[in-house]
Predict the 3D structure of the following.
Amino acid sequence: MVREQYVTTTQGSSSPRPAADHVYKIGIYGWRKRCLYLFVLLLIVILVVNFALTIWILRVMWFNAEGMGLLQVHSDGVKLEEGESEFLFPVYAQEIHSREDSSLVVHSSVNVSLNARDENGNVTARTSVGPKEAQGHTQNLLINSHNDNMLFSADGEQTVIGPDKLRVTGPEGALFQHSVEVPLLKSELLKDLRLECPTRSVTIDAPKGVHLKALAGNIEAASNMDVILKSTLGLLVLDAETVRMPSLPLSKGGVSGNTQGLYEVCVCPSGKLFLSKAGRTSTCSENQNC
């Protein structure tokens, strides 16, 4: 309690006159004081608990000056020295590298999806690997080798294979629904090369020529109906040591006295070939089988 005293003076007199005494109480007393102490104590307890929890989180999460546990933060990115990392939500990164002594492995219980977005946030390319299939959506697919040579390229119009050789190892070969353009088509060593169309025709075209060559075997062309060899401007040349036509039709007429079994090959105006027994002169006109 503080007591203050005020002194007043009157005109014409310099002697002070004591005024009435006033008493003011300064401070907090009673239940207000107890509540203030309780609030301060509660605030101190909260600060101590928060500080203890902060220390505990720092110890559990292994926070240090370089990062969090084995996860180190550098100026050029984030680096995980050892162990595995698990992401519960999408990860946005410019580059992801593995350690120099190990490979990069990505696991997921459902699927793994990689999306590329433009500046507006729209997905421009997407790759998804699931338990049953792998899908990719992009405008142009390009695969290069380690020396930056193109291995495979595909877009909406064509597919390009960069290496000099394409090898198909399936037991059923390769199935093409449309035309195929190749400079060279050959089989593996000691295996046959077959071009087959079960229900339609097989057409081989080339502007400068078609070469069929078998170094250690035969070339066979089998058809249920006709086999047509056609040259528009040039010739059809059969260049071999022996040319055999075992199933040519034989004309009914004959030449008496031909006991050696000799025949001559005759050609009809339509191009049909048939056999006629040979005589001293040609017998094709006599034994026409056209």
User: Anything to note?
Assistant: Residues 1-6 have pLDDT under 50 and may be disordered. The helical segments are 31-60.
